[in-house]
Every structure is written in C-alpha cells, then in structure tokens.
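hey so i finally got around to running the thing on that chain from the lab meeting. sorry it took forever, my laptop kept dying and i had to restart like 3 times. anyway pasting the input first so we r on the same page abt which one it is
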Amino acid sequence: MQVIVTGHHLEVTDALKAHTDSKFEKLARHFDNVTDVHVILSVEKLIQKAEATLQLSGAKLFAEDHQEDMYAAIDAMVDKLDRQIIKHKEKTGHHR
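ok and heres what got predicted. didnt touch it at all, straight out
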C-alpha cells in the first residue's frame, strides 16, 4: 500500500506523516487489496481538514473530516474509511 500525504496551506511534518502512516496500517489489516491512498491535509481558518481517497481493487473510497485538531481529524477520517472498507468487503464477499 502506497500512502501519499500532501498538505494544502500546511507544511506536512514528519510527525503528521508518521501518524497518518500508522493509522493506515490499521486499514491494511482489515483488507489487503488496498493499492493506493492519497491523503490531503489542509487548514481553513481555525478548522483542520483531513481527506483521503483510497483505491481498492474494483472500487474507490473517499472520506473527509473536519476538526479543530489535525490528529483528531486524521483519526476520525481513518475510522470512516475503516467502516467503508468493512462494508465493501462484506458486499464483495457475499455470493448468492
């Protein structure tokens, strides 16, 4: 899984990149067909925004979250993506 982290009106520090990478390792445990992840971290006045596009085999998932703390926004965004991956895995796993 390749994780690309970019910043919009924000300098992506090593700590932010390490935190993002560690959170996305959790997603790889649930579903191993994740090929590409593009994370965009941005700041708009006092709101910190984290959004990610996840490329799976056969699907593209998107999640975003707004918080006052960037680390909280990353955590909430990864939780949303985790729920979407589990739902996608259940859909593709059931054969009638």
